[in-house]
Amino acid sequence: MLRAARAASGRPVLADVSRNVGLSAAAVAAGADGLLLPAPAPVPAASVSAARTPSGSAAPGPADGGTRHAGLGAAGSGNGGSGSAGNGGAAGHGRVGGKGDPQQARRAGYAGVVAREFAAAGGIGLPGAMADPGAIVEADPEAALQVAEEAVTVVGALLRPESPVTLPECREAIDRVDAALATLLERRAALAGIVQRIKPVGGFAGRDLDRERALVRRMASRAPSLGEGRLAPIMNAVIEAGLHLAEERAHR
Ligand SMILES: C=C(O[C@@H]1C=C(C(=O)O)C=C[C@H]1O)C(=O)O
């Protein structure tokens, strides 16, 4: 429904979860471009201006005085930033001003909540030390914001189709995809490493080319433009990197 609303209006759709932040995950999964969150305190315009849209323009402050925005980046070409009249435009990535910003600690609490919800929406675990945004919010508000940015970047790349037009927009979208790819590659290498320890013969010696061909075939159905022919060398490199890493670790 939210995607349909965006398609019809051509503008980012913000879901108001200010009364129930627990609905964030559902809103993101349903296609919200950004979330309206409860305002912890009135935020002066100066500190809000540090929140940026992916295209680099400052996100306006809360127009309604009662909510804050958290977002997944511009919804696509030509509709980011100033497009959503009345609700402050596309939300940024939850960035705030530098260390010492008196608003930061308060906002970080909400960023932590958003990070957790986004991670849940995408089924993605936050990396290691970031696993408990709630704890980080207490200990280190800046780290909490990083968690939010991480979750928004990675989950956004997976959940939201984008159609950027300008070079900077395209590169920002690519950077988000690369962040998701790197996260997945790291996770894949860890899993492949476990397999090497479980198999009777691990490493390059226990290579299973039938399995590798089969996984490339399955991936090609999700990546039809690349197809098996182009995916095969990519996956060969990924698999060999994992095997090298596993062998290196086995010999330590
Ligand atoms: C992980 C395994 O070991 C090797 C690595 C693979 C991979 O990284 O996907 C696939 C097949 C094997 O060559 C496995 O056998 O499943």
TrEMBL record:
<feature type="compositionally biased region" description="Gly residues">
    <location>
        <begin position="73"/>
        <end position="100"/>
    </location>
</feature>
<dbReference type="InterPro" id="IPR036263">
    <property type="entry name" value="Chorismate_II_sf"/>
</dbReference>
<dbReference type="GO" id="GO:0046417">
    <property type="term" value="P:chorismate metabolic process"/>
</dbReference>
<dbReference type="Pfam" id="PF01817">
    <property type="entry name" value="CM_2"/>
</dbReference>
<dbReference type="InterPro" id="IPR036979">
    <property type="entry name" value="CM_dom_sf"/>
</dbReference>
<feature type="domain" description="Chorismate mutase">
    <location>
        <begin position="161"/>
        <end position="250"/>
    </location>
</feature>
<protein>
    <submittedName>
        <fullName>3-deoxy-D-arabinoheptulosonate-7-phosphate synthase</fullName>
    </submittedName>
</protein>
<feature type="region of interest" description="Disordered">
    <location>
        <begin position="47"/>
        <end position="104"/>
    </location>
</feature>
<feature type="compositionally biased region" description="Low complexity">
    <location>
        <begin position="47"/>
        <end position="62"/>
    </location>
</feature>
<dbReference type="GO" id="GO:0004106">
    <property type="term" value="F:chorismate mutase activity"/>
</dbReference>
<dbReference type="InterPro" id="IPR002701">
    <property type="entry name" value="CM_II_prokaryot"/>
</dbReference>
